[in-house]
Design brief:
Blueprint: H1 2-46, H2 50-63, H3 68-80, H4 84-97, H5 102-114, H6 118-131, H7 136-148, H8 152-165, H9 170-182, H10 186-199, H11 220-225
Helix pairs in contact: 1-2, 2-3, 3-4, 3-5, 4-5, 5-6, 5-7, 6-7, 7-8, 7-9, 8-9, 9-10
Length: 230
């Protein structure tokens, strides 16, 4: 019997080690599988297979709930599909796990703008900026909320800060032009709009539909910016 027990002992150790190793390595295995799913989701997204991509990203966060990239993409997909409530639920769930990730707070704020919850959106952007004071997109979005709330001086401060951090962002220059347009400041509106179109020329068609620029619709300098002279 003793001999039998001695022979079995290495086997017992091997089984114990196998289970111990699985316990230790399981998180790494899950992360590895999650990365495979991320790549799968990216490929689906690239060819426009959005629902398949969404499933891959959802499986990713099931395996690795700390994967901020997957959470963010899921929220962006729902937002793009105009499923704003679903997007908010995703970001809220993600932020319970990853409360220190500024991009999740920022993108949660952009969804709240779409739902008209501007004060809540502002709090989201404020939180993003607490975590990353040089987050230019969050400064821009903060400026947009101030514009929508009619708090124009605060909007200018936020947008100026965004431009200071990223001077080649045509979107921020465009929003700054909208603010000056709301103030009926012709010189500053045209100056900001010129910079916006320098970095984002595709906006040329839409400037004639922007209510903030209505007071300039017949202005020659304004028309020249979009090459729409009479």
């Amino acid at each position: 019997m003793k001999k039998f027990l001695l022979l079995c002992l290495p086997l017992v150790h091997a089984v114990a080690f196998y289970h111990f190793a699985n316990f230790i390595l399981e998180p790494y295995k899950s992360r590895g599988q999650a990365q495979i799913l991320i790549k799968k989701g990216n490929k689906f997204l690239k060819i426009g297979a959005v629902e398949e991509a969404l499933k891959a990203y959802q499986q990713t966060v099931e395996l690795n709930p700390e994967n901020e990239f997957a959470w963010n993409i899921i929220g962006l997909i729902y937002s793009d599909q105009k499923k704003n409530q679903d997007a908010l639920e995703v970001y809220d769930q993600a932020l319970q796990i990853l409360p220190q990730v500024s991009i999740l707070w920022n993108n949660r704020g952009t969804v709240l703008i779409k739902t008209g919850e501007l004060e809540k959106a502002l709090l989201s952007f404020d939180r993003a900026l607490e975590l990353d004071t040089e987050y230019s997109d969050a400064w821009n979005n903060r400026g947009v909320v101030f514009l929508e709330l009619g708090r124009l001086p605060e909007a200018i401060i936020a947008l100026d800060r965004s431009i200071e951090l990223d001077p080649k962002d045509g979107n921020t220059w465009y929003n700054l032009a909208r603010v000056y347009g709301a103030k009926k400041n012709k010189e500053q509106t045209l100056s900001s709009l010129k910079r916006a179109l320098q970095w984002d020329p595709e906006r040329k068609e839409e400037i004639h539909k922007e209510p903030a620029f209505k007071f300039l619709f017949t202005d020659k300098s304004f028309k020249m910016l979009s090459n729409k002279l009479d």
